[in-house]
Amino acid sequence: MAGISREDVVHVARLARLDVTDDEVDRFTEQLAAVLEHAADVAALDTTGVPPTAHPLPLVNVLREDVPGPSLDRDEVLSMAPAVEDGQFRVPRIL
Amino acid sequence: MTALEIARDVRGGARSAREVVEEHLAAIAFREGELHAFNLVLADEARARADEVDRRVAAGEDPGPLAGVPVAVKDNLCTRAVPTTCSSRILDGWRPPYDATVVTRLREAGAVLVGKTNMDEFAMGSSTENSAFGPTRNPRDPSRVPGGSSGGSAAAVAAGFAAVALGSDTGGSIRQPAALCGVVGLKPTYGLVSRYGLVAFASSLDQIGPLGATVADAALALEVIAGHDPADSTSIPQPPPALAGVLSDGVDGLRIGIVRELMGGIDADVAARVAAAAAALEAAGAKVDEASVPALGLGLSAYYLIATAEASSNLARYDGVRYGLRVDGEDITAMYGATRAAGFGAEVKRRIMLGTYALSAGYYDAYYGQAQRVRTLVIRDFEAAYASYDLLLTPTTPSTAFLLGAKTDDPLAMYLSDVCTIPSNLAGHPAVSVPYGTGDDGLPVGVQLLAPALGEATMLRAAAVLEAAGS
Predict the structure, then answer these.
(1) B302–A42: do the CB atoms touch at under 8 Å?
(2) Are B139 and B158 in contact (CB under 8 A)?
(3) Is B187 in the active site?
(4) CB within 8 A of B301, min separation 6: which ones?
């Protein structure tokens, strides 16, 4: 497994919608490489025929009764938002 | 006083809940400035709540099994209209519009909430140094960390600020600080306690559990918070196990294995306490020998890939749109990037980056997929071990409490402090850390008992034996 590069770190930060400084890129490149090196034992393991486990419980869809119930109060929820207009969340330009 | 004694006295009218809460608030006033266990102390609310409990007792009602018991909850548990920060700047100013199910259950059992405890930001850390509001210090030695991420909860119990506290445990975040502060910390079976209102870190690993000064107090708190909740789709749809009645049942005839793979890299004084615990269990009638559970040695690496992958997805919700911090940008993408850069601390950023990388194209199968297969191996090896053993015994942590700052520049060294606690989260099994004497430095050592899913009762029987032998 090739090590993680500065370019990888910049790419991943963009995927994660996280602005990073040049210093952070340097630091993360070094630190993530150390953690990934430690994970090399996992990456190198022969797991042929071993199924992945996503969850400790056998999950099934859980549906509630289709009956209207109380939900969060809209004004209480909107009162926590950074910007609101006409009963909705207000955000900067998208396109 | 223990939670059991407080509840007994308050229910019986021997003491008032107000008197009890004043004692705890006095302890907080005396030492909180030094320790910083809390992000928020709810003194007025606690007094009002205690008075309400006392009115119910006076009216001949029973306020419940935690009547008048001062409790502290980790600041990643939602409390309606009361700030819930996860020790992060990104939730600055947020007051949840609902209570976590466990908070509701504590209240319905008569408990008195005294505060929200400090933690590593979004529960990511093992020392409570990753809090945006500054570290918590260990009540047993304030130059040392309390462990983490539920370090504030462990410190609050150890310092007598609360009789019991709730934490959350994704890779050891209840048990490791419990061990370092010298209290009991229990991670329940995945699904036994509702996660509704727990701010998510890694959803397939997170579980809420109690910390207490005694095994009986931890069991009492677990009985109150456990049980099915329709609001959590991973909540086990059956009644929780009864615990209080079994604590004195002993360990005669139980088969207990010391996990060989988790004894490497453990400080000699900690290993000696595990050996002493094994001898005590044997003296009480258990059959103890060495067990091999090979895949547990791979748990740490698998965990840090799975937990960060889930975290990178869960923390995508902090985008500056609906709550908390917003840093404006010229368009929405710029706003996201700037908000998250300003709102998250270094460790949270590091884990989001690692998790995003492990899930990204080209690396998904080598890292995340492999880690999920290792998770299967851990579960299989546990199953094989539990064919021969009722319980497993390990250290909780490789060392006693370390000095503040000792590991802050070396994330991998910090991660290694969770090596013994992580396997239970991968498997969804219960585990408990019990104080068992001190190390060469005089600081508390915790030993850990592991059980298969829903094995809390057997696990706590052994924990009670160790508690009696160690005191």
Answers:
(1) yes
(2) yes
(3) no
(4) A38, A39, A41, A42, B371, B374
- Which residue ranges form the domains of chain B, and what is each CATH number? 3-246 (3.90.1300.10)
Residue ranges of domains in chain A: 1-47
- Please name the residue that has the structure tokens 């079976």: B189
Dihedral sign of CA atoms A62, A66, A70, A74 in order: positive
CATH architecture under which domain A1-47 falls: Orthogonal Bundle (1.10)
Within 13 Å of residue B83, how many CA atoms lie on the same side as its CB? Answer: 18
B17 touches B53 (CB < 8 A) = yes
Tell me how far CA of residue B356 lies from CA of A33, B91, B319, B351, B436, in angstroms.
14, 22, 16, 8, 40
Using CA atoms, how far apart are residues B185 and B205, in angstroms rounded to an integer?
17
Adjacent-strand bridge partners of B117: B38, B74
Chain centroid to CA A30: how far? Answer: 21
pLDDT at A1: 47
pLDDT, position B437: 97
Task: Please check whether residue A10 touches B, CB under 8 A.
Answer: no
| Beta carbons of B332 and A32 less than 8 Å apart | no
pLDDT at site B329: 94
Any chain B CB within 8 A of the CB of A88?
Answer: no
**Cα–Cα distance, B441 to B421 (Å, whole number):** 22
- The reply to whether B349 belongs to the active site is no
Q: What is the pLDDT of residue A2?
A: 55
Q: Is B173 a catalytic residue?
A: yes
- Residue of chain B whose Cα is closest to the Cα of A64: B230
Candidates B343, B276, B334, B301; CA nearest to B122 is B343
Residue in A45, A50, A76 closest to B97 by CB: A76
- Bridging pattern class, strands B70-74 and B255-259: unpaired
Residue B419, number of CB atoms within 10 A of its CB:
24
Q: Which of B173, B194, B312, B424 is catalytic?
A: B173
**What is the rounded CA–CA span in Å between residue B262 and residue B418?**
11
| Residues of B with Cβ-Cβ distance to A59 under 8 angstroms | 233-234
3-state secondary structure B342-360: HHCCHHHHHHHHHHHHHHC
Positions in chain B short of pLDDT 70: 471
Nearest to B428 among A50, A57, A89 (CB): A57
Encode chain A (95 residues) as per-residue pLDDT tens digits: 457 999 999 999 999 999 999 999 999 999 999 989 988 888 889 999 999 998 888 777 888 889 998 899 999 999 999 999 999 999 998 88
Who contacts A68 (Cβ-Cβ below 8 Å, separation ≥6)? none
ipTM for the complex? 0.94
Specify the pTM. Answer: 0.97
> Is B255:B286 a contact under the CB 8 Å cutoff?
yes
B321 DSSP 8-state letter: S
The 8-class DSSP code of residue B144 comes to B
